[in-house]
Every structure is written in C-alpha cells, then in structure tokens.
C-alpha cells in the first residue's frame, strides 16, 4: 500500500515534469498531455514490451491514467507558480526514480532474468520516460548530457543485489535500495556531481 | 469488405503523406520508402506491440505492404503534381483517421480493455504513424503543435462508447463514429479550429 | 560457432560506431554507453518485439552485454586513435551488416513469415540500431540520406530467397548471402555508389 502510494507520487511527478517541458516548447494542450503521459508511463511501457508482459502496465490499472490526468491539470493550473515549486517537484521526481528502479528490478526477478539484465530493466523503467519526453520535444535526452541520473539507478541496482546476496529481508531491501538512490541523487544535485563529457582532445 | 477497402485507402493516404514529408527532407528513395511505410503502419504496430498481438498486423497480411508500395510509386511519380492533389490527399487522410481510430477501438474491446484505454488505443492507431514520421524527419510532431488532430480521435472514441451504451447496432455504430471523426476534421480545417498553445505568460 | 563469433564481431563493431557518434555529441560516459548499447542491440530488439519473441534477445544471452561493455571500453580508450582505425571499423561494421541481415531473415523463417516480411525483418535487424543511434543524437538517420546501406540488405534478402528456391544447402546459402551483402557494401563505398535524393524540381 505504501509502495503503491509512492508509485503514484512518482508517476504524478514525472507527468508534471512532462507538462513543464512541453509548455516550454509551446505545444497545444493535447501535445502537453501526451508528453505528460509518455514521460510518466514510457519507462514501464518499454520494460513491459521488452519482457513480453502484455497488455502493458497502464492498460491494466486505470489508476495510472487518472493520476496522470490529475497531474496534468495540476501542472497546467499552477504552471505560473511551478518555478517556485521546483524543489518539491524535484523531490517527487527523485522519489519516483527510486521507486521506478525498484519496480523494474522486481519485474526482472519475477521472470528469472540475470541480475545484470534486471539492473538494466530498473534503469530503463526509471529513465526511459524522460528520454522519450526529450525525443518528442526534439532535444538530445538530458540524461545523456548533464546529470548523473541513470548512473544512480545502476548504482541502486548494484546495492539491491548486494543486499539480496546478504539475505536482507524484502521490506528492508526495498527501503535501503530506494534510500540509496534518493540520497545519492540529492547529494549529486546539492554538490553538483556530474560525469565529464568524453571528448576526443 | 467495404471496411477493408477504406482501410486500404487510409493506409495508402498515410503512405503518400509520408512520401511527401520525406521528399521535402531531401531523403534518398529508400529513406522515402521507409518513412512512407512507417507513417502507414506505425500506429497499428505500436498498438499491436502494446497489447501483445504478435507478429504485428502488417506481418500477417501482405496486402498492407503492397498498398504501401503502390502508394510510394504513385506519390513518387506524381510528386510534382501532388500539390494540386492536396485536397484529395487530405480527404483520404481524413478517412484514414476515422477508420484507424475505429480499428484501434475494436482491437481494445476484443481483449476486454477499459473504454478509456480503448480510446487511447484508437487515438494511437490513428496518430502514431504521423508522430514517427515527424521524429524520423527530426521535427517536433505536427500533431502536438498545429492542428486538432488527435483530439478529434478522442472525441470519436467518446461518441463510439456513448452510442454503444445506447445499444446502437454495430454497422450504424461504425458509420456514425467514423462519420463524426471525418466531419469534425473537415470542419476543423475549413474553420481553422485549433487549440491555443499553453504558454506560461 | 563461426556464425556466433561473427555475430559477436558485428555487435562489437556496432557498439564502437555508437561510441564514436556519441562522443562527437559531447555526451557523458553513461550517455555514450547507452548509445553504444542501443546501436548494437536496437535492430534485434525491434525485430523481437515485432514478432513477439520475448524477453528480447539480449536479455537471454548475457554475452551480448559483455561484448558491448568490452567494445565500449575499447572505443573509449582508443578514441583518439580510432580515426586511423576507421578502415577496420568499417570492415567489422560491414560484416555485422551481412550477419545481422541473415539472422533477421532466419528468425522470420522460423515463425513462417512470408519472404517479403522476412526481408523487412532482416533489413530492420541490420539497420534499426543505427537509426535509433541517430535519433537519440538528434539527427536525421544517416541511412535515409547518404549511403545505400539498407538497400543492400534488401538486395541480400532477395539473393537469400533466390538461392533458397534453388535448393542451395544452408551453409553455402549463409556464406553466399552475407558475401553478397559484404561485397556490395565494399564496392558501394569504394565506387561511391549512392541513391540520388528524390527532389521535386
């Protein structure tokens, strides 16, 4: 239940980040809604398609759709004030990152995939929505350029399997994994950690 | 049979619109063909992948491939005259919009998805081909910016379920739904209806 | 075994071409790795998703992941010297083209798809990785503009079915098909063959 609630928060935060990006591109309301939707469900959809889980997640549980619609209206109504809300938005987004990575890891384990593949699935679940958002807005995906975003998901995945190997019980495992992801992200932004671009000079 | 024929018209119209877009980007003939193909089958392919219907539609019925090839050659041969044919092209495209929405709705119902999801599937089937065309041509998808295109599919989906709730028989249901979509699109273009961009000012 | 080894070479060559493209876009190391990964497995992944083979290929055989990681480190370490290695890179890439087309053709035949669809699958397997690489780097896919790349895969597919109709035994069939693709690509580059853009003038 707690898990589900946080998933809902993450979905909404991702939807809101989609709305803000699309508004900056001067899209019409429908375009903005689609971008919000894709940002929120893109990662889980790619994961489900790749592992053959169909119909994909958001088609089975309508709550995701409702949450995205709510996030859309919230973001549109408060769009002029959202710059001031950027901190809380960032906070939700970070929670989403932790939870979505965890969900991706779990889905991979459910069908007995190798840990390395599970980590890839977790990272995809957390990051692909943002990638699609940026492609649809005709930009190089931000996660490939600026922030150590996906790298944190990979780190979280490694922590997850390390703890699992130590027989940490499930509840604690979930809390610690998402805790590591969330804490690292917060620190990465506070201390401006980033990976330098690979140049050829 | 009539339904199938119109589907063929819609597929060809979408293929032709792909050819015209790609030629404007100075692509070579192969690139133009791929864009035509993707514009025509992209929506149905995404739908089939998301609901787990595989192999996807155009792999099972070769007629789609032949129709696209025919559309490709027609558009390439008559490319210098197609500006004058723009009206008839627009007409086919609009028929395609109505029929493809309907097909998406039906596929969703077949596997007992919720009406809201069916409407999303119908809209995707009708619109995603054009979205992919624009992404491959490195543009922000036109449906997110200029026209009320996808919004009409959503409207059509709502009409469909409203009529279904009123126990309208299938044949009439199909004709009315696609009729509403086609008529609304025609009016939208004639009267220049559009959604204003969501700005932050 | 020989087949598998060449597949590995092709995968690595594609990964390396991804690394070089991404470095030119000034991406950070994670971005570069993702582009390498997508370039190498993108084609096979699309193929598997479209024919409903899940989990997709690289999730079942971890060797692909290891080969890509190796290719990534090789390319990053030797990135300043790779311009001089361009010829050998081009050679691997061409081998990859031949082998990947063949693999796509075979997967289509395995599930009894029509030859035309098999040729499309082979072409996708060989080309879609590069298309995704270019989209993620925000460019019009190079195969739609400059080189006769995909056209060679289609040619190779036709040769494959022609030879198959003549009851050429499997081993010879594979060698001849990939040989035709590799030889044509080499000649295309040496003699600067290309398709002219389709203009409207």
UniProtKB/TrEMBL annotation, chains A, B, C:
InterPro entries: Gly_transporter. The chain crosses the membrane at residues 6-23, 30-50, 62-78, 85-105, 111-136, 148-166, 172-191. It holds the Pfam family Gly_transporter. This is Trimeric intracellular cation channel family protein. PANTHER family: INNER MEMBRANE PROTEIN, UPF0126 INNER MEMBRANE PROTEIN YADS-RELATED. Keywords: Cell membrane, Membrane, Transmembrane, Transmembrane helix. Belongs to the UPF0126 family. The keyword Zinc-finger does not apply. Residues 5-79, 91-164 form the Glycine transporter domain. It is found in: Cell membrane. One of its GO terms (cellular component) is plasma membrane. The lineage of its organism: Bacteria, Pseudomonadati, Bacteroidota, Flavobacteriia, Flavobacteriales. Its main location: membrane. The keyword Iron does not apply. It comes from the Bacteria. It is a multi-pass membrane protein.
């Amino acid at each position: 239940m707690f898990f589900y609630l946080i998933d809902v928060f993450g979905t909404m935060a991702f939807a809101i980040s989609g709305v803000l990006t699309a508004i900056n591109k001067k899209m019409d309301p429908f375009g903005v809604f689609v971008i919000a939707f894709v940002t929120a469900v893109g990662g889980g959809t790619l994961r489900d398609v790749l592992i053959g889980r169909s119909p994909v997640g958001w088609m089975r549980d309508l709550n995701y759709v409702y949450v995205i619609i709510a996030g859309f209206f919230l973001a549109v109504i408060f769009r002029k004030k959202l710059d001031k809300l950027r901190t809380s938005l960032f906070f939700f987004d970070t929670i989403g990152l932790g939870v979505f990575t965890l969900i991706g890891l779990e889905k991979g384990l459910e069908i007995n995939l190798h840990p390395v593949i599970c980590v890839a699935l977790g990272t995809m679940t957390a990051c692909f929505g943002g990638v699609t958002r940026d492609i649809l807005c005709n930009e190089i995906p931000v996660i490939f350029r600026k922030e150590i975003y996906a790298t944190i998901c990979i780190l979280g995945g490694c922590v997850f399997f390390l703890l699992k190997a130590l027989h940490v019980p499930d509840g604690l495992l979930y809390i610690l994994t998402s805790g590591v992801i969330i804490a690292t992200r917060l620190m990465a932004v506070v201390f401006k950690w980033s990976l330098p671009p690979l140049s050829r000079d």
